[in-house]
Write a structure and sequence with these properties.
241 residues; Glutathione S-transferase Yfyf (Class Pi), Chain A, domain 2; four-stranded mixed beta sheet; globular; binds glutathione
């Protein structure tokens, strides 16, 4: 049995995706919970990833970075039933396209928004943002949630699905997991109610409530965020005293 080591923290969306892949495929691994900015910027971690981004894993002595590349690697090794990454090349292309859309368009908008509007103030004493910035940021979030709403809607139609359960094809894939993690964080941190404006997306989002593993990861995310906020506040208090 190959020993897999994992380094990450559960508040991080890409980390949760790798945890989802490891756990849903029943892969044994050694879990190392690390601290953003502290451990990720330490020499030992930067020798694994010079860009300081978690997650990272070690597989059979080889260090690996980037959540999508790690997840795809793990799927190709362990996902014999093609549960998370389809076998068919055309279906695969659609999953990859969604993962790229997430990395290029969704994640930069969603993640920056709750740091800019909320967490930087709590964690780093950053100044409050003005109304114009806040409203432009919410507009960008809504435009992107609107795109996802339409993607879910047309996938439901194209695959004659009874419910909105996936972004591409008939079953949930790696792309659903990765994008759910991004949507969950922005909706949780900024208390965005999807129901009113994004009914298809809301149905897709709710469908994760049947997924025990995802519910566990959601809980771990909340605890991890609380710990991170506490840690940053303590650092700030020390600096100020
Ligand atoms: N594209 C990378 C993104 C990794 C990333 O941004 N990780 C953040 C957490 S969400 C991080 O580790 N930040 C720590 C730091 O900036 O020090 C991936 O998908 O793995």
């Amino acid at each position: 049995m190959v020993l897999i080591k994992y380094w990450g923290f559960s508040a991080s969306q890409p980390c949760r995706t790798v945890l989802y892949v490891l756990r849903s495929l029943g892969i044994e691994y050694e879990h190392h919970e690390i601290r953003p900015r502290l451990d990720t910027r330490a020499e030992w971690f930067m020798s694994i990833n010079r860009f300081s981004g978690a997650p990272a894993i070690e597989y059979n002595g080889t260090k690996m970075i980037e959540s999508v590349a790690i997840s795809r690697f793990l799927c190709s090794k362990y996902d014999q039933e093609y549960m998370l990454f389809p076998k068919d090349e055309v279906a695969r292309q659609k999953v990859d396209a969604l993962l790229d859309i997430n990395a290029c368009y969704l994640r930069p908008v969603f993640m920056n928004s709750y740091w800019d509007l909320k967490l930087s103030q709590i964690c780093f004493n950053a100044p409050e943002r003005d109304e114009e910035f806040t409203s432009t940021t919410f507009d960008s979030i809504k435009i992107n949630l609107g795109h996802l709403d339409q993607i879910v809607k047309s996938n439901k139609k194209n695959h004659s699905l009874e419910n909105c359960t996936s972004l591409s094809g008939s079953n949930k894939t790696l792309a659903d997991v990765q994008i759910y993690n991004e949507v969950y964080n922005v909706a949780y941190q900024l208390e965005i109610n999807l129901k009113e404006d994004f009914p298809y997306l809301q149905e897709w989002y709710d469908s994760f409530q049947n997924d025990q593993l995802m519910k566990e990861l959601d809980q771990e995310m909340i605890i991890s965020f609380d710990n991170i906020i506490k840690m940053y506040k303590e650092i700030l208090d020390k600096q100020e005293s």
